[in-house]
Amino acid sequence: MRFAVLGTGFWAAEVHATSLAGHPDAELVGVWGRDLAKAKAVGARFDVPGTDDVDALLADVDAVSFALPPDVQAPLAERAAAAGRHLLLEKPVALTTAAADRVVDAVEAAGVASVVFFTNRFRTATSTWLEQAARTTLAGGAVTWLGSLAGSPFDDSPWRHEHGALWDVGPHALSLLVPALGPVTAVQAGRGRGDTVHLVLDHPDGRASTVTVSATAAPLAAGIETWVHGDAGRLVLLPESGTAVEAHRVAVDELRAAALTGGAHPCDAAFGRDVVRVLAAAQRALATGCRETVGG
Hints:
The protein is an alpha/beta fold.
């Protein structure tokens, strides 16, 4: 499968392009960026062309790996799907439910495969944890994800600073809780210091979960805790680090499989759209101080 990478930032080069350049069953064909000089620089690193002509690059590939701000990604994903290209998307797929709906509509209209790269969902430990959760009668769960943009490779990412941890880190939490506990039906939300957000999520059959996310936490407070609980006790997902390239290669494999079989992937664009709907409800709950129905 021939891939284009759209994006020229840290994540585009260090994860997406690095993964594809070393993948035995994928070929990195080129890199696109809004800044031609940056696109050429990233392309040169991997010995492929860099361009600012997205249509020319789409004409040469089978699939697109996106590493762009979500508001830039969404319209380009529509464009790539309309051209018949399979989509390996980043989270969140968009910053509004309307934009996310348009991505899903484009994927369905074109009949292309889609996968959203929720990093943890492509790790063996997570798959094992979800299998264990599926064999347990669960009552609820929790995710606490504390970090800091300051001093990180993502500190120069304007959209992360503007929209905060809810939209940056929140999708990761939802990608774990939703498959374990079921879809989120309603959200309550409160703010903490900086961009810290606390959520209470309603799931079917009386299940509930809590989420705390921050990208402005003190360095010594940084860490990730994920668990669900039920009749078998507490199931804890231990965090992993330094495996993003390996996880991306798994996502590439699973996109290829979905493209070959025509089947839907558990983390497809429709799931990504459902995550955006929860985030939008949480944003409304922060504004109103009220419990907000997802999709309401």
